[in-house]
Write the structure tokens for this entry.
Amino acid sequence: MSSFGATNTNPNKSHEVTSPPSDSVSSLSFSPKANFLIATSWDNQVLCSAWKDDGTTVFTGSCDKQVKMWPLLSGGQPTTVAVHDGPIKEIAWIPEMNVLATGSWDKTIKYWDTRQQNPVHTQQLPDLCCTMDVRHPLMVVGTADRNLIVFNLQNPQNEYKRIISPLKYQTRCVAAFPDQQGFLVGSIEGRVGVHHLDDALQDKNFTFRCHRENNDIYSVNSLNFHPVHHTFATAGSDGAFHFWDKNSKQRLKNMQRCSQPIPCGTFNNDGSIYAYAVCYDWSKGAETHNPTTAKNYIYLHIPQDTDVKGRSQTASTGGRR
């Protein structure tokens, strides 16, 4: 993998967020009700974040094996509402069930009624939880051994389906389809898989390369569906983010590379803003990171409608396999 030649952290002229975290950004989450953005960071060893559906509460999961609940309106102190035996990598509030789902490196998924001390259910996983996404009743979990485990949350005690990732290398991120009929999976090898759950639709599954330049291959760090058009964004360790249409197998917009990796990105609730972080993503380990000189940025990109709206099925794409 080559080093970054450019020095511009904002070649796409996005809006810069002031006072970013002092260390690498680990997650970004928009409120479902308004344009409030939560950023978590390695400076407090916080790995993930999620909002309650009413926009009044934020949850954060950390390396201290706890999930904290932050009441924003009252300004009260955070309380611990979930615990694991390992760092908590993923969290999701599921309003249809009124529970919090937490995924940990202790190889479990737990479901919590935040008013109770103990989980309402603990689900064993075959390996560490690396990534998770929920579109009720669909939940997709990616584990360190390349397993992709699908749950129907109407029966969360049982796995609905388990498959080995169609990608040859470690899973980095997943995103459930907005229509709950399948999911995207991204890997460290600059590739995304599009997978349908219905056995009758397996001929529509495909993979495509992205976040590559010549012989340099970069991790796909983030996958996010647009909330209106149901196209999606990828962001990677090459410092780029792109917009895609899975139905026509097209790349809709190719954005310019930033001078550092993009570890995470997310759309706001109406898709008018795409937020992304530009900072070190730990893909080369601690030995290449100097926290005293490292710079961390959060940007807000305003996509044009043509950048995120799906196009005709008849067009082809250079990003196809």
